[in-house]
Amino acid sequence: MNDVKAILLGAGLGTRLRPLTNQVTKCLVPIAGRPLLDYWVEQIAATGVNEALINTHHLAEQVREYIEAINAQSGLQLLESYEPKLLGSAGTIAANPNFADGADEIIIIYADNFSDVNVRDMLAFHRQHDNPITMLLFHAPNPQACGIAELDAEGRITGFEEKPQQPVSDLANAGVYIFDAQVYKQIAEMNLFDLGYDILPQFISKMHGWVWEGYHRDIGTYETYLQAQRDAVEHNKRAFSGYQPAIFLDRDGTLIEQVHYLSRPDQVKLVPGGAEAIKKLRKAGFACILITNQSPIGQGIITENDLKEIHQLLSEQLAQHDTKLDGFYHCPAVPQIKDRTLIEHYDRKPGPGMLFKAAADMNIDLTRSWMIGDMISDILAGYHAHCEGLILVETGKGLENYEIAPQIPIHKVADLPAATNLILN
């Protein structure tokens, strides 16, 4: 898989949001109880980004504290680029010309927008085309106030103008770009100030536009910020329509009987009442998704094909009860330390990576989702992914893990059927 990095542009003063931004920097203003930047960090993590840069200026110490918190609890590494004087969107690139080293693409995001765009899908679109730049576009209600693009039949941008008096379309620049690393370095060498005015017009016919039909809002004014808050509340803490809640399930000791380094399909045995629990949860509208650490793959004990056969038998056992799992996610990384509360690899529990990937793949609303497991690493993965509920079962290794549980809200129940009753009741 290609390597991708990201730059989150969050240094704006937010003058039109005063007095709010006198106390809170614009990229950290709360939306439905979460910092705005949280939503973008979640998106880039689900896209496979392991390293991202955030430019800072106004109230930089607040962003610095946010960066430290994210770096301490996840495998995503956030870096700071402090600007004593604002450099502009293109200037931030010019100030960090070597950031593209080791990457195939760089995602550039204006972090003062609130959006449900799927950046992972946008990256897949970018990789299907030869042009070195892809620009996110949305239908603007006021195109005269935006940068407006004109597309040909193949989606290539054939015209672009900032704040035109007579717009040729309503397709507006949404402030999310994907640059091939080579063109990123080319832009850095230009040493200019603004992407929209100074850079993008030079790449007409060398950019594709990816039109997002979902939710996207610039929260540059107090009125649009309040509207984003109302939208978020209306759509259950996130302004996303069509998102469903999920139950994330650990495998060994939670859904199936605990077996040390399970390596054969004939070792798979559902816990008592496990299939019926899955059936009830799916009937209630939850997607049921398996989230499992599989270090035996990394150690060479089993292969990826062995795991497929094991999960195929698990699926067959569930099918005998007229139910199924909606998704399977695994991480083959081998842990190097004994402390299972620390994140070594973003995807390996207690890291939230697998949950974020599932959320992006399957349109999952994490704020209405639950994590069920018998290990404290399971619970922490759900906690780091901002799940609504965390349940530790006593089957498997649950009892020995309960004693080392951190001071976060955890429900302790006997088994998977009991967890199901708790959720549904």
Features of this protein?
425 residues, alpha/beta, Spore Coat Polysaccharide Biosynthesis Protein SpsA, Chain A, Rossmann fold, 2 domains, 7-stranded mixed sheet, 6-stranded parallel sheet, 19 strands, 32% helix
How would you describe this protein?
It is a single chain. The chain has 2 domains: 231 residues, Spore Coat Polysaccharide Biosynthesis Protein SpsA, Chain A (Alpha-Beta Complex); 179 residues, HAD superfamily/HAD-like (Rossmann fold, 3-Layer(aba) Sandwich), CATH 3.40.50.1000. Helix 14 links the parallel strand 18 and strand 19. 32% of the residues lie in helices and 22% in strands. The chain is built from 15 helices and 19 strands. The longest helix has 16 residues. The strands form 5 sheets. Strands 5-4-1-6-11-8-12 form a 7-stranded mixed sheet, sandwiched between helices. A 6-stranded parallel sheet has the order 16-15-14-17-18-19, sandwiched between helices.
Q: Characterize the overall form.
A: elongated
CATH class of the largest domain, anyone? Alpha Beta
pLDDT average, as an integer? 86
The CATH topology of the largest domain turns out to be: Spore Coat Polysaccharide Biosynthesis Protein SpsA, Chain A
The name of the CATH superfamily of the largest domain reads: Spore Coat Polysaccharide Biosynthesis Protein SpsA, Chain A
Q: Which percent bin holds the helix content?
A: 25-40%
Using DSSP, what is the number of strands? Answer: 19
Architecture of the largest domain, according to CATH?
Answer: Alpha-Beta Complex
Sheet/helix structural class = alpha/beta
The span between the termini is: 43 Å
Biggest pleated-sheet summary: 7 strands, mixed
